[in-house]
Every structure is written in structure tokens, then in C-alpha cells.
Amino acid sequence: MDNDQIFESCTGTLEQLINDTSVPRNIRKAAEDSIALLQKDEEPTLKASSVISILDDISNDPNIPIHARILIWNILSELESVKD
Asked: Which SUPFAM superfamilies match (predicted)?
């Protein structure tokens, strides 16, 4: 899987989170911010690390539903495989 495919996959999953009304507003906002970062024209590893930082913070939020936490963990594992 190349970086563009990884970013597309992550964007799709983040859009699921944004459209899920059971997910708290702050988590959906972080997902929107992450999509904006993934769409920027920057070095792939820089984009990935920025999004990983945001998602890592929200994955520890005690109010996040378990299904959303699992989706975030899946995104994090995908982003960790991004290469230069």
C-alpha cells in the first residue's frame, strides 16, 4: 500500500467518525482537523506524524465510544506505516 492509498483509507474512516452522531463533538472536530492535514501538500511523514499526534490525544479521551476508539487505533496503525 502506498502513502496516497493509506491517506485515502484514513480519510474515509475519519469521515465515518465525523458522520457518527454518537461520537462527541470534540472527537469529530479532531477528525475534521486530521482530514485537513491529510489533504495538505506536505511531506508524507510530516502529515502522518501530525495526524498521529492529534489522534493519539483523542484516543485517550474517556468519553469516546469504544467503536470510535477502535477506528482511531486502526487509523493510527495505518499511519505508522507511512514511508518517505
From this structure: Ta0600-like
